[in-house]
């Protein structure tokens, strides 16, 4: 027997939902909700769903063309995204978008090395190329902090060019990390348990020295010098924050999670300040997972002491920020079964009863947008905490409830949600036979 409360809420959601039917007008109401906001944070319920990337790109293109957004900031490492930024702005020798994406080699590469991102950055390149000569070109930037060694190399490359003596000092400081090669987790373990000296002081001092030379370095060649310095400074900041992050990994999830999201929010702030100095009121679209962009205070995360980018951006920019989430009910998803594992096209189990996803599925609407800022029966009913699914780069259907669900209050978490009932996994650029054929056998890799 059906629950009459759920049925009533489902009817209210169905009445409030705006169906998405694939026309150019699909997101007119979302554009009205966004208004003149400077920050539009667009999430995803998994790191491997085609429709999330596709619709996020569709919304972003409208924000660029209609509302003057000039930056796309993503859950990716700063140096890898910089390679794409140079390509889309026509400031590199990369011949194709595939070549521009080659920097994304670290697991999970499919997050950015997939056909949807390929198509989007090709569009960005063409859009920028068609702009008037003095127009502000759209940039593509990374907010994450996993690229400690690539960022060290970027700082050294910059200093070799502008100040060889400073480069020698930087090499000496950063040599503290050399014992561990590129195994950043080994460094974090050894430093946090006193098995090796911490490199914190060296990383901090290098950032301080670089910042003390701002006027000297930036004053050499105008805009180009300013952009190059900002890129190097952000890499030095990333090394400092990544060093702390890898030490914190062995102190507990909350500590490391908060350090990472604070870094991403700080990077966003620094990026906006840098772009604003070029004379415009910068508007930024942010692409990250729902768990980073939905306000943590409205979820189990907040109850555990975790914060996230969405919360920090809301606290700083208030109504100048709009947070948009995605949900899905079933289909397939590109994911792995363990960190560093084989990329697989996995079957996505139907969402659990009592979840927001199951409620949205019961409306019978294949795709819809729900404005959560409206005052109506649907939004009021959704304020009661419900299960919400989150799939990162790992999907474990056999432990679905404990691995992929948490409680949330959706209208406090997001300003709008987009539900796509049946979704498909993204297509990696580096497809393997295991991805092509679906999930690997349970006996992989022995197949016995």
Short structural summary:
This protein is α/β, with parallel strands linked by helices and 448 residues long. It has 21 helices and eleven strands.
Description of the structure:
By secondary structure, the protein is of the alpha/beta class. It folds into two domains: 1-69 and 283-448, 3-Layer(aba) Sandwich (EreA/ChaN-like  fold); 145-281. It has 21 helices and eleven strands. It has helices at residues 4-16, 28-34, 50-67, 78-88, 97-100, 115-129, 148-162, 164-174, 184-192, 200-212, 214-218, 222-248, 253-276, 290-293, 300-303, 309-317, 356-361, 377-382, 400-404, 410-413, 433-437, and strands at residues 18-19, 39-42, 71-77, 139-144, 284-287, 321-335, 344-348, 367-371, 386-389, 405-408, 416-423. The strands form two sheets. Strands 1, 2, 3, 4, 5, 6, 7, 8 and 11 form a nine-stranded mixed sheet that branches. A two-stranded antiparallel ribbon has the order 9-10. A hairpin with an 8-residue loop joins strand 6 (321-335) and strand 7. Helix 12 (222-248) packs antiparallel against helix 13 (253-276). It is globular, with a radius of gyration of 22 Å. The termini are far apart. Residues 440-448 have low confidence and may be disordered.
